[in-house]
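Risk register update: the risk that structure generation would not scale has been downgraded. Supporting records follow, first protein first.
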Amino acid sequence: MFRKTGVVGRVITLAIAVFVTIAPFYWIFVLSTQDPASSFGEPRFFYHPSFSAFKTVWSDRDFLAATRMSVITGLLTVVISLAVSIPAAYILVKRKVRKRSGLLSWLFIAYLFPDFIIALPLYSVLQNMGLYDTSIGLALAYQGFMAPLAMWLLMAFFKAVPDELGQAAKIDGCSEWATLRRIYLPVVRSGVATVAILVAINVWNEVTIALALTSSNPTLPIVVSSYKGYAALRWDQLSAAILLSVIPVLIFSTFAQKQIVRGLTEGMFN
């Protein structure tokens, strides 16, 4: 009896979780495919959907330009974050570093800083460097909190690798860089992939820094918010833009789900 009750409880909990997850997406889809005048009416489950809002948004040059800006910025951010965090995490874990605990504490605090604290001083810096309103400038600004995150995650993966592997490589004459590239990276490649995925998703959804450091080349979340209009909200176009911006993340997360779970499991429990 208690076993059946437990099964029923788990099924109910799972059903509630699925409903809470799917319901917002369904309602956004309804808003994007129905008459804007009906947006505040009763929920409609049966109606004739219109996809004109999707066509309008997809043909918008600003939307396409923002999508391109977000993709390029995300790729640059991932590359820079990995280039910085992989050797840094390796050194912090596998080698003796003076004041290591203080450095780790600073990395943790830096990640917890509010976004605008990073954005405001970087505005002047990027202006003087000619990198304001560019994808490379935005990617460099993101390192203020993406690099600490990547380093913290990668350190867990490097800790899981036995020190004997590195020592054996040194005996065979490998340099520090060769040991990292030939011995450690193949072992922690799932962790590196996991970190790259998490950084990309975080950057894709980021708004505060992008809003402060871009103007004529905004990222996708900023352009999506512009569909709210001035005199009235264009609910159908706003909802369509939201769905179009979310779909790449959903598809990417679906295919990368196993990689993320495997990577985080290996890093936390190995």
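Supporting record for the second protein:
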Amino acid sequence: MKVGMTLPIMEPGLNADMLATWSRTVDEGPWSSLAFGERMAFDNPDTIALLGATAAWTRRVRLVTTVIVAQLHDPVMLAKALATADMLSKGRLSVGLGLGGREEDYRAAGADLSLKTNAEVAHRARIMKRVWAGEKVVETIEPVGPPPVQQGGPELLAGAQGPKSIRLAASWADGVSGFSFDLNVRAQKEVFDLAREAWKQEGRPAPRLTTAFWFAIGDNARPQVQKHLRRYMNWIDKAALEAMLPTVGFAGTAAELKEGLKRIADLGTDETLLIPTSDDIDQVRRAADVMG
């Protein structure tokens, strides 16, 4: 199983130097990917702009979006932006695509809430693939470019969890961009089993199976996770959030993290992405020690 690292883009006080240092440290370490997700109504960086920067800051790791909310973007413009990122990174881009869970992000982007459906994600993904194939999807003299470096476009991973969304994703995605709130291996196995069966029924190659979780290592690990999530998960009812905080994410020792990753690997997982709950780069170095 490959293991990637996520940039701490949901932390306060971000700046270019810190993001560049993190990106280069991950690129020079044992990590397979450098990941980051999208949010609109928050003070995190824009995903597309950050893809351009990380393409310049790194040379080796794949760049993974986890996930871009398809309905916040015009699909043709998004296809052009992602093809550009694929070109700048020399074919190192993987794209997580989903519908998102926060209505405020739709309002912030001026997006139509009636389109917040998995069917609409599938529709937009198909438009993007047509753009990447060089088709003229709009009335223009030339097709929309540039062409992506990766033939057919970047790998698309669906941010899908339930049976219905996974079955639909099998018609357009290359795999699933999963997430585990509490490292529940049994629940993750159910998602992966659903995906394997759905892709099989579609007559497609086995899906790429990925997951992610928040982590903190050290004596102050649990308070660190809780502090991060109280800020990040500000759209959740406070009482409900407080009830979740004792168990959400991973908080423990390096040895315990290694054991947790082993349990996830035993599911046949292709890649797990670690999500830091602090901008302290020592967390990356301590997690790297787990990788040996």
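The chain has eleven helices and nine strands. On this basis the risk owner (M.S.) recommends closing the item.
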